[in-house]
Design a protein that fits this description.
By secondary structure, the chain is α+β, with helices and mostly antiparallel strands. 12% of the residues lie in helices and 25% in strands.
């Protein structure tokens, strides 16, 4: 008596019949194998037979003839296609209805290709280039201009102000003096080199000086106290015939009365109030 060789599904004998061995090694007749191991087509709902070409997309299975473009009906078996909502569209239908046109080259931007969008306009990534160096900008920072766009380095080289002293580009911050731009670390005292940004300073022969260097080098001496007259901390000063006084020091040489706002009379190297001048 021969050994039994039955279908693992319906238990009928497989002698003289076609069968398929499942992954676990169990033999199945064709109907049982199709029922147990094949998928239902997502489009027509029929089983996809073991000997039919099966297409799979997004965890759904299709007969070859059932996977079609929702617009034109073309088979998508060997075509590029895109899902839009619940619809599957061939590349031609999707592009004609939904794809953007590149501002630079006027060609359609294909689904899945890299693109850049800015202010409602679209470019191929390779077409969005800097006006200066003509290199693709990609995901780098850029600056818009009337005629196009510049990458950061090209914009700085073309438009950014340059420091009066070192001639390098000022990226951020800086100091403006006499309509000239300076780096903060470049705007320094011509005497001691200390940074002058945010500090009191003055100029002599077009060079900036801190208060201390100006006082030591250029300030005139007060006729009254012999201290430097700078016009800084001590306020305004008075000048007469190449001589200078702090306002607090501008007084009668004889009685020491303040001469601010009143008439005075010079006498040799002295200045006298009206009363003292009549005593001379």
């Amino acid at each position: 008596m021969s050994e039994r060789f039955d279908c693992a599904g319906c238990k009928e004998s497989l002698y003289g019949r076609k069968f398929i061995q499942a992954e676990d090694g169990a033999p199945h007749c064709i109907p049982c194998y199709n029922k147990a191991f094949t998928h239902a087509c997502a489009e027509c709902k029929e089983l996809i037979q073991h000997n039919a070409r099966e297409l799979c997309y997004d965890d759904r299975h299709y007969h070859e003839q059932c996977l079609r473009c929702s617009r034109c009906g073309r088979s998508l078996a060997d075509e590029r296609f895109t899902r839009h909502g619940t619809a599957l569209l061939c590349n031609a239908c999707f592009c004609s209805e939904f794809s953007s046109t590149c501002v630079a080259c006027s060609k359609t931007i294909q689904p899945g290709s890299r693109k850049l969008e800015y202010q409602g306009r679209t470019w191929h990534e390779a077409c969005f280039v800097c006006l200066g160096c003509q290199q693709p900008i990609g995901g780098k920072a850029f600056v818009p201009d009337d005629d196009g766009h510049y990458c950061g380095p090209c914009y700085e080289n073309k438009f950014a102000p340059r420091c009066t002293r070192c001639k390098q580009v000022l990226v951020t911050g800086g100091v403006t003096y006499r309509d000239e731009a300076w780096h903060r670390h470049c705007f320094v005292c011509a005497g001691c080199g200390v940074e002058l940004a945010g500090k009191q300073f003055t100029t002599e022969e077009d060079s900036p000086y801190c208060v201390q260097c100006f006082t030591n080098t250029y300030a005139r001496k007060c006729e009254g106290c012999s201290e430097p007259v700078t016009g800084f901390g001590e306020g305004k000063f008075v000048s007469f015939e190449e001589r200078h006084w702090h306002q607090t020091c501008f007084a009668c040489s004889r009685c020491s009365a303040s001469l601010l706002g009143v008439g005075f009379f010079p006498e040799d190297d002295r200045i006298l109030c009206r009363d003292c001048s009549t005593l001379s």
